[in-house]
Amino acid sequence: MTTIIDRRTRRSELVTTTTAEEFSADHLLRLLKGDVFAVRVTGLVDAVALDGLRERLVGRDDHGPLATDPQFRRIGQAFSETRDGAESTYFDHAAGHRRDLRARAAPYPYPSDTVRILLDEAWPSGATLLSWHSRKFFVGVARYQQAGVDLEPHTDNLHRNLPDDDLGIRRQLSVNVYLDVPDAGGELEIWDAYPSEDDYRGLSGERVWGIDRADVGEPALTVRPTIGDAIFIDPRRVHAVAPSADRPRVTVGVFIGVRGGDEPLAVWS
């Protein structure tokens, strides 16, 4: 894959670090414009809540397999797991998944709710839960990337991640909140590449999903997450997560849909 990053650009300039108090719409706009590859919000989950959430969510073994690739484990269900005709089942369970994860996190806020409040207060028109035909999406899938599992290079795309209907969303961002990170491995890797959907399918070939690491070269940016932080990216860029060498990497993931500056953001999983 061709890398066009200006070698004079220092890698430290490709990630912006801020706090929840300083986070603003400008951070999202910088991602959308491609000025930075990642925005890290340090300490999104405060120390007391982080201890409580880790006690409740880290080390669990009651997570289920991802429908599209059983080597990945999760609590909740992502819309991208659905197949034609199964959308109704996803929406039938969406509210139950939201309630279940909030109950597991209680009395602490579930991180996807914390993200939604952060976005609502930062974006001029706020942020809402995405809905389709008056049915609300689930948001905040808890992901358990087991030791040795490689989340290989891939992209996320609106046309793969949402129903076919035009929901008015023009761009997609994503954010993960980190509840546990292995001592070795688990780094977020980002390439300076936005393959078209046709190019991505060509690179994937006969694979179920993703791209062989041998076909993309070295990432332009590697970020080691810290527990309690949130990291926003533009998932149209090729990105991956290095395999953990010791224990599961535990995150809460949220997609963010952007319609326009004068319309609310929409969140889902």
Automatic annotation (TrEMBL):
A Pfam family matched in the record: 2OG-FeII_Oxy_3
Annotated transmembrane regions: none
Cited InterPro entries: Oxoglu/Fe-dep_dioxygenase_dom, Pro_4_hyd_alph_FE2OG_OXY
Example of a GO MF term: oxidoreductase activity
Record's keyword terms, sorted: Iron, Metal-binding, Oxidoreductase
Keyword Ribosomal protein in record: no
Recorded superkingdom: Bacteria
Protein name (record): Fe2OG dioxygenase domain-containing protein
